[in-house]
Amino acid sequence: MGLKSTPARVRFAPSPTGRFHIGSARTALYDYLYAIKTGGQFILRLEDTDQQRFDPESEEEYYESLRWLGLQWDEGPDIGGPHAPYRQSERMQIYQNHAEELIERGHAYYCFCSPARLAQVRQEQQQRKQPPRYDGLCRSLSMSEAQARRNSGESSVIRFKTPREGSTTCLDILRDPIVVDNATVDDYILVKSNGMPVYHLAAMVDDHLMEITHVLRGSEWLPTFPLHVMIYQALEWDQPIWVHLSVLLNPSGKGKLSKRDSASGKSDAKAIFALDLRELGYLPEAVVNWISLMGWSFDDHTEFFRMQDLIDKFTLEKLSPSPAAVNYSKLDHFNGLHIRDMATEELTKRLIPFFEKENVESEPKLLAEITPLIQERIRTLDEAVNMAAFFFKPEIDAAPQELVGKNLTPGESAQAARRSHDLLATLDFFELETVENALRNLADELALSAGQLFGILRVAITGQRISPPLLESMNIIGKEVVLHRLELAIAKLDAFEAP
RNA sequence: GCCCCCAUCGUCUAGGGGACCAGGACGUAGCCCUUUCAAGGCUAAGACCGGGGUUCGAAUCCCCGUGGGGGCACCA
């Protein structure tokens, strides 16, 4: 069924001015999914025409984030392609040519108004409660006059000559046709006085030249959508399929998720950036699954998706036009699901950096034995460190009161620990069942519940009230260390009771 | 202020005139399982923004409100 769709050329065109956040990630993911699904190309283009805001580190972060998420591009600034260059700052001549073509066709004009005059016009309009727009002073300048002023060295920009009459219909596959009065559309600047094109020109030209078939972009472009359609029409180009993605909202649903929130100091604020999510122990598989569902759905009962599932199932039609608030608890849920979905050896590999980060010397061979015990207990990779550090530490330090069994006195607890120690000293740890039965019998003998006895041993051996399964853990730690830790616990309990 | 978009449980959503006293997921609560914690299983509470139409019949179509969001730069 999906076989008959024609190969799409889809582009992700970020502006390297900041960090790569989950909104960018979602757009890139949809781009990627659609391109791969249709057997087309996923193109990466850098929109770096604003030299003021350009940030070289940002470019690197985009590459790394995309790679981390597994969204490999087919054409891009770093790898080239049939429509290179893919960095807008290297395509200035192309934009200049098209701007001139628009002027020749009577769809654009030179404007010599100073920023100061523009500001004044705007202010007056606002006082009159009118929408702030260019008043058209230079719109009717003759070609020769404009040329003369330019030759005299006067600074100018190029503006689009928006039709004063009629209307423009904009088609977005997720919405009804949007019809706007041309009279309400401003004469936007296309080329700045420094010769740099603005998004409106550069993106349209590149999308056309790069043969982009589907434009997926944020709905913040909806207000200037008519302009973009007019540019295509003025150049007599066929339009791509337009898809305006819904905005991502803060977890509260109040306001859009923005880079600004990352600095506000809220607990989950910094988690809006992909690479921060990686630091926090989230899997790219889970992040992909999570963001895929913000504004897209498949059916009634499927939410767990691996990348290939997404490629198979993704359709533009199921995208939703309404804004979506991000839900971090759902990310935790997906992360747990994907951790459990992963091969144990793979999980072990991914866990290593987190132990290293906390300076826990995790021997890979030992860690491989531990992974199965924690795989279904962790939701983020970094939780593994707290949960399993006791396996690696030479000494654990349990508080005496923690060692006391439920509803028991320190003395009774010490006695239970002592008896367990002596019993365990005679057993072969590798026979889990034998050990368990022996311990249960001991509990009976001491008139304790299994829970009471295991509780004491758990704290004595792991230093934690909550731990991976006790018997398996003991097995990994080894008899010698287990007995040693029990001796320490007994000593502590004895001392605890003494006063 | 002006323009545009959107509107189902707290959140993400299914739904595209009768199949809906509205289904799923996360979260929450309870139960089962159980050596702790998880995982897993089961159950519960929880929504069609309001008002008008259209229609035999509306969550679904239309209009008006309201609410939310976005935009109004020589940024993207």
Annotate the secondary structure layout.
Blueprint: E1 9-12, H1 22-37, E2 41-44, H2 56-69, H3 92-104, E3 108-111, H4 115-127, H5 143-151, E4 157-160, E5 167-170, E6 178-181, E7 189-191, H6 199-209, E8 214-218, H7 225-234, E9 241-245, E10 248-249, H8 274-279, H9 284-292, H10 307-313, E11 324-325, H11 328-341, H12 344-357, H13 364-374, H14 383-392, H15 400-403, H16 410-424, H17 432-445, H18 450-462, H19 470-477, H20 479-497
Parallel strand pairs: 1-2, 8-9, 10-11
Antiparallel strand pairs: 3-4, 4-7, 5-6
Helix pairs in contact: 1-10, 9-11, 12-13, 16-17, 16-18, 16-20, 17-18
The protein binds one RNA strand of 76 nucleotides through helix 4, helix 6, strand 11, helix 11 and helix 17.
Brief summary of the model shown:
This protein is 46% helix and 8% strand.
Features of the shown structure:
single chain, 499 residues, mainly alpha, three-stranded antiparallel sheet, 20 helices, RNA-binding
Report the sheet with the most strands, covering strand number, pairing sense and barrel closure: 3 strands, antiparallel
* Number of DSSP helical runs: 20
Total number of β-strand segments?
11
Rg, Cα atoms, Å? 32 Å
Mean pLDDT: 93
Give me the secondary-structure category: mainly alpha
The proportion of residues in beta strands is: 5-15%
Widest beta sheet: strand line-up: 3-4-7
Low-confidence stretches: 263-269
Basic shape: elongated
Helix content: 40-55%
What is the CA-CA span between the terminal residues?
A: 78 Å
